[in-house]
């Protein structure tokens, strides 16, 4: 998914715009040495300079999420 920078992340006083969201199945990272079925990465680009920041979350299977229906 690509974004136009409307969502921002503030990290150590530096502003980052959300650039894209990536889905990795199975996860690229582990939680307590366990690979998860899905990892969602929010990739941000700095407003000034070339810095990048990534925020990753693990998705755990459960109830249907209606917000993600359009993505799938």
Kindly report the average pLDDT value: 88
Q: Compute the number of helices.
A: 0
Proportion of residues in extended strands: over 45%
> Terminal Cα separation, in Å?
11 Å
Whole-angstrom Rg: 14 Å
Derived structural class: mainly beta
If strands are numbered along the chain, what order do they take across the biggest sheet?
1-2-5-6
Order of helices and strands: EEEEEE
**Which geometry do the CA atoms define?**
globular
What is the number of beta strands?
6
What helical percentage do the residues reach?
under 10%
Tell me about the biggest sheet?
Answer: 4 strands, antiparallel
Low-confidence stretches: none
Write up this protein.
With 72 residues, the protein is mainly beta. Helices cover 0% and strands 50% of the residues. It has no helices and six strands. The chain has strands at residues 8-11, 14-24, 30-31, 34-35, 38-46, 52-59. The strands form two sheets. The protein has a four-stranded antiparallel beta sheet, with no helix packed on it. Strands 3-4 form a two-stranded antiparallel sheet. β1 and β2 (14-24) form a beta hairpin. The mean pLDDT is 88.
């Amino acid at each position: 998914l690509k974004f136009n920078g409307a969502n921002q992340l503030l990290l150590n006083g530096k502003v980052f715009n959300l650039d894209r969201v990536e889905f990795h199945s199975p996860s690229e990272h582990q939680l307590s040495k366990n690979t998860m079925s899905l990892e969602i990465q929010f990739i941000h680009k700095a407003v000034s300079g070339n810095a990048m920041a990534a925020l990753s979350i693990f998705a755990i299977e459960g109830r249907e999420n209606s917000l993600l229906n359009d993505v799938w």
